[in-house]
Amino acid sequence: RIDPARLWSSLMAMAEVGATPKGGVKRLTLTEVDREGRQRFAGWCEAAGLTLRVDSMGNMFARRPGRDPSRPPVLFGSHLDSQPTGGKFDGALGVIAGLEVMRTLQDLNIETEAPLELVNWTDEEGSRFGHSLMGSGVWAGVYGQDATYALRDGEGVSVIEALEGIGYRGEEPAAPFPADSYFELHIEQGPILEREGMRIGIVTGGQAQVWYDAVVTGQDSHAGTTPPSTRRDALLGAARVVSLVDRLMRARGEDGRGTVGRLQVLPNSCNVIPGEVRFSVEFRHPSGEEIEALAAEFPREARTIADELGLRLELRELFRIPAQPFDPACVALVRDAAARLGLPAREIISGAGHDAIYVARRVPAAMIFTPCKDGLSHNEAESILPEEAADGCQVLFEAVLARANR
Amino acid sequence: RIDPARLWSSLMAMAEVGATPKGGVKRLTLTEVDREGRQRFAGWCEAAGLTLRVDSMGNMFARRPGRDPSRPPVLFGSHLDSQPTGGKFDGALGVIAGLEVMRTLQDLNIETEAPLELVNWTDEEGSRFGHSLMGSGVWAGVYGQDATYALRDGEGVSVIEALEGIGYRGEEPAAPFPADSYFELHIEQGPILEREGMRIGIVTGGQAQVWYDAVVTGQDSHAGTTPPSTRRDALLGAARVVSLVDRLMRARGEDGRGTVGRLQVLPNSCNVIPGEVRFSVEFRHPSGEEIEALAAEFPREARTIADELGLRLELRELFRIPAQPFDPACVALVRDAAARLGLPAREIISGAGHDAIYVARRVPAAMIFTPCKDGLSHNEAESILPEEAADGCQVLFEAVLARANR
Ligand SMILES: NC(=O)NCCC(=O)O
Ligand SMILES: NC(=O)NCCC(=O)O
Asked: Which of A16, A377, A395, B22 could be stapled to A189 by a disulfide with Cβ–Cβ 3.0 to 4.6 Å?
């Protein structure tokens, strides 16, 4: 069995990197703090006898050989980057639990049939460059590497500059290599498991999503002198679109998700009518048809708002992900492990995006969820219990072992 | 008569300081660029034989002696700071035209009865520290100096740090000294004069205003996992308040003004439901009663919005300015000068705030407006014609001379 105390203390040691005063972490992708987290992780991998490779997107693969070198490896892992005001467990749990799996195998001197590889994907969160699942997306061929390299953050720094800046642009191309399967442990980030007293979520797939970048353009002018009839207030337009997103979400009941999370006003001066507002829009739903319907309805209604106010609206669809079912055989291994361990478990669809969703396009994949306090994530107060981490890690251990030795 | 070519070339020389690619200026108050503009101005004052004093708010007074040293000076001027994406003439016209008045008197060897003082007020725009009319407000005793020193910009720099940083915290206390009168030339920043083919606006007063700082607090959480029923989206609340401000403005017809110009979202990440939004709100109206009504109605309705969405709203009233009539005798001097020069002129109420509005609480004051293209200001495309600048400057010259020699 895995060592719950070692798992927890490594989780806490990783949480020191980018720790925030409110008890969360700020470990934005490809920053100096991310580099520090990666170095700490790399050191632990080396001590556990693993061999590290870094690919051209900065994805890290730490390999443990198997008895049969001709077999493709079983992959598992998650991400070490965080939101600007993120929690200690979102992503880190899956990576550090994967490390604990490797350490346990080393302690017990277990040799698996297939090789194992522990992965830390680059930029899962998407909050710095606007694309979530970036490293796994390029790896799986969903995003082109050149276009991804050219994305820029709010300060104008490109992905490739940031990668090279922290010394994590590796040699190996970021592209799918032959792999047996992929397992990812993650906190649920939602309220369902906790509410129902479940210890394990057997994740059957990810929901459909569509993301946009929006720019509303009006005209900067003086707040005190410009009469109502001649105003072209870009913020008023953006505000109505924010309300529209909420309305379209609620029209789909409790399964709907619609969010404007990022919004920037220009010139952002109290006595200037805003001439330009740039913001993000995203919708999610377990049903791909609902997302298709939203992708038709939202741009049309948003344009109507802009037209009514004499504003210009540029709407760029960043990506559209269909609902992604996981591999039934891999899901069954998770279900079996939870049952064997006597842990109350239920099937669940992931509300959040995860690297597993892109990896699943190339490799049979599954995920394991553990509860988190009040379903709260993307928040510094994100919190889980040591025994919840240990249960999730044990399920991961058993599923990976079963798959590698089949 | 004043020298139109010299006036224009000095205006263009000042516009080089902080020039932006789109033809405007960014000369934010108390920055390095502001210091550069002040130094250029100080050099010109010295060359024109003026004696410069700087007060504890960085307000600059350039004095030309009169025949009778016992008489209080006639003041005139405006401000050299700009909006982040401001125009070349907002403020600079009044200061540089004042300099042209001084230079013309020097050229013609005219000695006035009363001394004259040309003023450059600190931070008229208010866009950096959130308080417009800051230097004149402290001078006139509307704002306390200590509280004003403690205001901070978006980067956390305080007013006093910024003042000392550019070496413009002067010896003399910022407080009203005996002065005969104050005249300020400014572009209208609105569409009225241009629409009616007027060359001069005889400003009879400033409109009433009320400004707020607002903070809406909800809860950061994951955009993909948080169901509609448990969301507390601070941006949704702010968006509804933006719509409310617009509705309250329009309910007052063409004379109403209501603007949210500045808005900041936290944590501002595309896949995080915003937990906090901070923004500015301001209303203006020629009638003080309408502003009193808005100051009762707006906070009440904004609170209802927040309550409905389960959000917390903090609303801090920054200031409330009653409608401020100018001094009839000073206004008459402006009217007479325009008439004598044969310039089409009309009475007008200022839509913008101006230093003259605070100075008028202590000293008889008046203002002169000139048209600006398309009524556009607080915009880099702000534009006026050389002859419009010259006409305004000539009216200023005559009004000041008449007052100083009466
Ligand atoms: N797991 C997680 O928080 N992913 C971020 C990507 C998203 O779901 O928006
Ligand atoms: N004149 C001018 O633009 N003043 C800025 C203060 C304001 O009216 O908001």
From this structure: A377
Residue of the nearest CA to atom 6 in ligand 1? A353
What single string gives the DSSP state of each residue in A13-56?
A: HHHTTTB-TTS-B---TTSHHHHHHHHHHHHHHHHTT-EEEEBT
Q: Look at A225 and B261 and tell me if their CB atoms are within 8 Å.
A: no
Compute the distance between CA of residue A94 and CA of residue A187 in angstroms, rounded to an integer: 8
Q: Is residue A385 classed as helix, strand or coil in its secondary structure?
A: coil
Binding residue positions of B:
79, 90, 125, 186, 378
Kindly give the pairing relationship between strand A181-187 and strand A74-79.
parallel
Name the closest residue on chain B to residue A225, using Cα atoms: B351
Torsion of CA A58, A59, A64, A65, to 10 degrees: -90
Q: What b/e readout covers B59-95, taking b as 16+ CB neighbours within 10 angstroms?
A: bbbbbbebeeeeeebbbbbbbbbbbbbbbbbbbbbbb
CA separation for the pair A166, B295 (Å, rounded): 52
- CB contact under 8 Å between A225 and B274, yes or no, is no
In whole angstroms, what is the distance from residue A371 CA to residue A336 CA?
A: 19
Distance CA B17, CA A406 (A): 73
| CA R_g for chain B | 22
**Nearest chain A residue (CA) to B192:** A225
CB-nearest to A261 from B127, B209, B273 is: B273
What are the chain A neighbours of B132 within 8 Å (beta carbons)? 270-271
Among residues A177, A138, A118, which one has the least CA distance to residue A58? A138
Q: What is the pLDDT of residues A299-316, one digit of tens each?
A: 999 999 999 999 999 999
Residue recorded with tokens 């932006």: B20
pTM of the model: 0.88
Peptide bond into A267 cis (omega under 30): yes
pLDDT by residue (tens digit) across A1-39? 999 999 999 999 999 999 999 999 999 999 999 999 999
Pairing state between β B345-350 and B200-206: parallel
